[in-house]
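ingest -> validate -> predict -> emit
validate: passed (alphabet ok, no gaps, 92 aa)
predict: started
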Amino acid sequence: MPNLYFCQPHTQNQGTLRAVISHDDCKYLVEPSLATYVGEDFPKVSDLHGQKADFAVLGFSADEATAEWRRGYYRFEADLMELNAQILKLAR
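emit:
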């Protein structure tokens, strides 16, 4: 199942695993067209250009890849508090 990470550059962490979710949940949380494929390596959280905005990352292994989501990582801009509330709704 795909992994969802929360990334907060101002905390200088490397990304925190927030949830393991289904493909259907991925579509609920972010449209594939709004996520940017960044490759097979986890993106750097600290941006060299000084960007400090929080963002989220979806990760797919080779076994989880589909036509919509290929193997690797996708970055998308998100209000992490709002995204967390959506995740909690999924868990109910």
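Residues 3-91 form one domain.
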